[in-house]
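Continuing the series of single-chain predictions for the mutant panel. This is the parent chain; the variants come on the following pages.
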Amino acid sequence: MSNPDLALMDIAALAPLIAGREVSPVEVMESQLARIEALNPDLNAYISLYPDAALAAAKEAEREIAAGAYRGPLHGIPMAVKDLFQVAGMERTCGSKILSEGVANSDATSVARLRDAGAIMLGMLNLHEFAFGPTGINPNVGTARNPWNPDYVSGGSSSGSGCATSAALAMATLGSDTGGSIRIPGAMCGVVGLKQTYGLASRAGIYTLCESLDHGGPLTRTVRDAALVLGAIAGADPDDPSTAQARVGDYTALLGQPLDGLRIGVPREFYFERLHPEIEQAVQAALAMLEELGAVVEDVSLPFNRDAVQGWNAMAMAESLSVHEGHLRDNADDLSPDVRERLGLGKDLTAIDYIRSRQTQTRVREEMAGVLAQTPILAMPTTVIPPVPIETGTIVVGEKEVIGWRVLGQLTRLACFTGQPAITLPCGFTEDGLPIGLQLMGAWFEEPQLLQVADAFEQATEWHLRRPPLTV
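Parent structure:
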């Protein structure tokens, strides 16, 4: 295998070669850095890159493995995180002109756990400013471009994470998901994006947007790789009280198991309304494939969904304003226009509005539990539209112009509101060659089953094998 090809491998395939000392972490890192040097100037996935530190860490990993101290499948694997995570030796900007923290001297818990597993941090990835938007368009640091067509968005808010994972500028990445910010770029870049159960992985050291809704999780090129990364970051953390009840499992345990008789619910109402026709076609084909794999696919009703979306809006706008009130007051002109507008939406909310959103959240969780008792997996599109052009931010569906930032999070907010796990994986492409995502949702802390279904679909199709038409 030639060195340039190493960066293109998925973790599960590369790890045994590193473990068996057939491939050195240094060779892997050199391959990875060469690819970043060639492609990142055009794609803008990274806000900052630390190649010397990464290469030094690869040499240390090589020494450890040679001494018999192999740590597991992430040892020597180059990874990068959204520029929202604290990373020792790196500077966090949140994609904004107004944040000035200097170089961090400690890691976010999830980053520390990845390093403990042997992963190597490359740098900080692009994002929608302060993670508050679904397109990834960022006038402050430039926009991370879609590897399938650089004129289009890679989705937000974890735009650089989706872009870097898809273009093989990192072997896996971390993003954050408050209303879809892992799954939207996952869908738009043709990779796997996993939002685990709320409280399964720590948010300590991740810049807060909405305390009640934030999740930090993996974007990877395969479902198995997502399981490996989740296995490294999952678990209780005293620095994040939401993780006190975390139930950790073996996330690879059910991979490869058949789906015979598993009931999968499809909520047609809301989730299949006003869909871009090519997305509807691809998702319908994906549902047919799940049936072929032995699942029982049936329609379900989620009558609480619209209440959930309204509740999400009230909670997200109130909590984000509480975080950014000072920025809005003192630096409004330096914020991205759409972020400034969105933060302003929280100003008219009352305490009663917020309390009612919390009450709605409790009710919706109970009603969702009832649905999942009958159909433990739900399947639907990840987004209503494919990626939009960066220049306009809009797309024409039928004869109507649709504004990307207004609709891209519609189908992903529910799982953040309930806190249940959800995953996106590629299920097709538009005629223009842009990826389409299938979204699956599961029950709280039942990630092994969710990953089982996603893996079964992935392995029965070839979408995950496609690579963007890049010149390297």
